[in-house]
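Q: Predict the assembly, please.
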Amino acid sequence: MTSKPGRIVAINGNMITVQFDDHVIQNEVAFAVLGDQRLKSEVIRVRGMQADLQVFEETNGLRVNDAVEFAGNLLSVELGPGLLTQVFDGLQNPLPRLAEECGFFLKRGTYLKALSRETQWEFTPLVKQGDTVRAGSWLGSVPEGIFEHKIMAPFDLAGAWTVTSIVDKGACTVDSPVAVIASADGRTREVAMVQEWPVKIAIDAYAERQRPVEPLTTKCRIIDTFFPISRGGTYCIPGPFGAGKTVLQQVTSRYADVDIVIIAACGERAGEVVETLREFPHLEDPRTGRTLMERTVIICNTSSMPVAAREASVYTAVTIGEYYRQMGLNVLLLADSTSRWAQALREMSGRLEEIPGEEAFPAYLESRIASFYERAGAVKLHGGASGSLTIGGTVSPAGGNFEEPVTQATLKVVGAFHGLSRERSDARRYPAINPLESWSKYPNAIDEEAVQFARVMLMRGSEVNQMMKVVGEEGTSVDDFVAYLKAEFLDAVYLQQDAFDTVDAATPLERQQYVFAKVSEVLRTHFDLKEKDAARRFFLELTQLFKTWNPAEWESDDFKRIEQQINARIA
Amino acid sequence: MRKVYTRVIQIAGNVITVSASGVANGELAEVYSQRGTSLAQVIRIQSDRVALQVFAGARGIATNDEVRFLGHEMRVSFSADLLGRVFDGSGVPRDRGPALSGNWTEIGGPSVNPAKRIIPRHMVRTGIPMIDVFNTLVESQKLPIFSVAGEPYNELLARIAMQAEVDVIVFGGMGLKYDDYLYFRDTFDTQGALVRCVMFVHTAADPVVECLLVPDMCLAVAEKFALEGKRVLALLTDMTNFADAMKEIAITMEQVPSNRGYPGDLYSKLAARYEKAVDFDGAGSITILAVTTMPGDDVTHPVPDNTGYITEGQFYLRNGRIEPFGSLSRLKQQVNGKTRDDHRTIMNTMIQLYAACRETQEKQAMGFQMSAWDTKLLKYGGLFEQRMMTLSVNIPLERALDECWNILAECFEKSEVSIKAGMLDEYWPEKSRPAGGSAA
Ligand SMILES: Nc1ncnc2c1ncn2[C@@H]1O[C@H](COP(=O)(O)OP(=O)(O)OP(=O)(O)O)[C@@H](O)[C@H]1O
Ligand SMILES: [Mg+2]
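A: Predicted assembly structure:
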């Protein structure tokens, strides 16, 4: 690939303006040359013979007239075996290997290959000479940890191609050719295990998109029972700082019932990623008995890393998610926080001196957010298998106020809303998902009628609570008061869940169904309670019993013993 | 010899624009005006128009003043000789010591590779129960004190610094009242801490642009010490002044503000500083304790709001006490499982009861009847405020935990506090000891 030259004419923060003399492509990659360093950049606007580029690095030291090389390709990631277990930055640099090369600090202008060129993968062909293939067809597979990693025909193939040769079963590296394919009009292409794909373009080498109806169990009770998510669906978690967005995602990343989890730490704290990357290699995935790391990819562009790469990081993550979906796997992408990505857009929009919208966010904010979440989906592949990519994003609204552009734009496009509230987190009612405001459009795996009953109870309890603030406990009827206590009970023993207790942190669906039935029984039962103090005491004790039940191992002796105590109480 | 330019083509706020070529983004220059020599830094370049922010301010600069570019960025020299010294924001000595020289290191350097960080694991003891018991401070944490003007936040900062077991203290003052600067210097001095302390001080009377440099100067020095294996505590007060200085420059540069005049990159700018807090895999650590004053006691104001999204919790200072609600140490669970086995239980129980007490106080204020339980809660709240929340209480963690048990036993029956039986058997004081073990 020949690189076309250009020259810097202006520098403003991480934006440079470049005079070019041939042609450039929108979103083309370019490198600003600074001594022996080459700083990766992307074309984001072209006017006449000048292009505005966002630089994915600090621009200190650059000068007017410094050279810029345009690379001719769009910002892309490498896709192939060996992505799992890795920790990348937003541009897919493997951070542990970067640390080996550069030591304690990140070094600008250093870009390493995402996939190892030495590792030998045991390739098993799935097609033979003469077979017809199209974009995304499975040509073969290699074992990648616990998965059969499919080697696929390039996603940019148009129409049907014929396999002219395929290698036999045996070990090869990612860039050695495994197949040659030919088109109807006689063009041929060599296919290696690694392929590149531009991050801002969705991979759509599937037969059709399907409605996301199959529940994705997170093992978080309030989510699975009240505000469920579906495989291939989308959801968002807005909340003020410290309300528990990250903890909720961390718990989900451990226990969610999916094949692969991609964690995109986008503009948040490095320390939070460190917890994940230090702990996951030692935590067992109960589904497979292997470590959690083996099903995880971490994309980590934390808040002090370059801002433009933050914007790239969510696209890098979603592209890797789409890639594994093409293998017929269920993938969950957790992005924390999408607001930081939106802010990166805002910073760049400001430098481009575009006309600002609300809170100075650019006018295209909504469409960018929408097209990002649209990359989720449950799909049926050409070969008949199906896969899914679910996206869950946190939102960090300024001042914790949901009436702001990023939250509002996100709410328009997602299928479920888990809104965290400051009151609940201050009262240490974790997870602080507000049960009265949140919603989900996805089907439920728990008795819908019982859930509806519980919802009504929560609403009634909250009304009584409001009323009591005005008229006091003495002005409230025993009936109303009991309704309030029942709502509080439901909240305390079912909605709240201890993320740091090994058992309580994850409630499998079966247990949820079982426990929820018992909780519903309590909600529906009319207890003969004559006065408020007795009622309060009764529910306090019941709450206490359920709270010792939650951390008891499923179906253990303890579990059964406490259940008997509960039964005796509510009989 | 580097070229001297004498064509200042624009002066706006503290930013001057010079016609020059071959200048690097971020480069430093010296501006010679009738008021003396000032450093300035390149912040934007448009063909031959180079915009510089002038550290000493643009007042008195003439359109034909000389500007000489220095060929390097802002930097600070590093050596153990820094200990005991006081500088201003641009590194000029405030004491009578020698000027900085040699072993230069650029400030605002790249971020630490997350792969080289480790999970924080050491508690920092402060002797303040509201911190040690309820929101434990952890080595390498970044944590601000949220406060309204007039609260004793600087005293609190100084006290934590004096009691924390660290090797080096790096102090950054931004927009500091001169009296407060003297207070810190004298406190460090009389407590014998000055010898392990470096101070970078920008006072309210100093040029605004210098304020912008203080955090980076401090953190560059802190990083160097940490790489030598030292445990460093960085104190930054007041970060709201730092944010306001950024706002001023942004408006001068005609940037579109995002929220109440603050630039859209406020979050990234603050995060770049706070994220310097680190526990290195194979070297020392940096803990950052900052002050963020909240204009109008409004936590949704852009500065505290963005800060809260960046830091690992906050201490909320109000009415001379650290509020149990609103205060949060997000790293506490890394360490409070390893202190004493009743630590977490006590922490949760005491806070839940105190929350219940607050509700009762509200009911009482509305004139509602008080039940027997309400009366107990009110008594509990009083004791809790007196023996735990009062800032003058200064006791080690273990004594504070014992004291919590005493308070519980003085107010409640065993069965009322919802604590597991095993824990009660071990810790519940048999005879409630009235006032016996109260605070020192
Ligand atoms: N489920 C939970 N159980 C117990 N504690 C929790 C839970 N969720 C959150 N917390 C507490 O709240 C703190 C803050 O949570 P978290 O970091 O998830 O907030 P956040 O919403 O991501 O905030 P930010 O927007 O600033 O990143 C945690 O450190 C923890 O102490
Ligand atoms: Mg978070």
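Residues A 245-246, 268, 336 surround magnesium ion (ligand 2) (CB under 6 Å). Residues 343-365 of chain B form the longest helix (23 residues).
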